[in-house]
Amino acid sequence: MKKTKIKTLITGILFSLISILVFNSCCTKKYCYGVDDLDNISFYGFSQQDLDSIVIKKYNKNTNFQHILDSVFIEPEHFISNNEYEMLYLTDNFVIDYDYEVELLSTGQVYAFTDFTVEKKKCNKGFLCFDYFESLESYKVNGEKQTDSYLRINK
After folding, report:
1. End-to-end CA distance of the chain
2. Is 12 helix (H, G, I), strand (E, B) or coil?
3. Is the Cβ–Cβ distance between 155 and 44 less than 8 Å?
4. In terms of pLDDT, which residue wins out, 87 or 127?
5. What count of Cα atoms within 13 Å lies in the side-chain half-sphere of residue 155?
6. CB burial class (10 A; 0-12, 13-18, 19+) of residue 55?
7. Which of 1, 29, 64, 99 is the most exposed, having the fewest neighbouring CB atoms within 10 Å of its CB?
8. Residue 81: its H or E element
9. Quick check: 29 pLDDT over 60?
10. pLDDT at 72
């Protein structure tokens, strides 16, 4: 009788382990692009000459851009071009806990990034499994709300 109980116990444990492995293997393991991945800015309607030298300045949030915490000078080799936009790869990711200014030195234009909002979303959904990530829902550029999940500047 004891052998039957042990056999039932072992069968139950094995069934549980196999079930866990099968159900977890149903999860998709794609990468979920979120607020921790703000590593580029897409410039729409700009020429390469407009973007020949850029300064990005980081400020504490909601301080009206009074005291620069950090700044970086960026040259054109950080760009990828196509017919629709110029994409600048950042040396440091934008962090939504700060405000930023992007200054185009050749034109004198300044673009202020503020009011980042995020939403917790599910990712890698599968049978009985999913991950969460923080998705960029909106931000403002010079006071105008943008609802892209990536950083974008329109000329």
Report:
1. 81
2. helix
3. yes
4. 87
5. 14
6. middle
7. 1
8. strand 79-81
9. yes
10. 95
Map tokens 């973007």 to a residue. 51
Residue 104 CA to residue 52 CA, distance in Å, equals: 8
pLDDT of residue 8: 63
CA nearest neighbour of 32 among 143, 103, 133, 110 = 133
Return d(Cα 21, Cα 109) in angstroms, integer.
55
Sorted by sequence, the CB contacts under 8 Å of residue 83 that are 6+ apart come out as none
Radius of gyration of the chain (CA): 24
pLDDT above 70: residue 3: no
- Given a contact cutoff of 8 angstroms between Cβ atoms, the answer to whether 135 and 35 are in contact is yes
Per residue in 105-141, pLDDT (tens digit) is 999 999 999 999 999 998 876 666 677 889 999 999 9
Q: d(Cα 49, Cα 107) in Å, to the nearest integer?
A: 9
Q: Contact at 8 Å (CB) between 123 and 30? A: yes
Q: Which two tokens stand for residue 59?
A: 């400020």
Structure tokens at 2: 């004891």
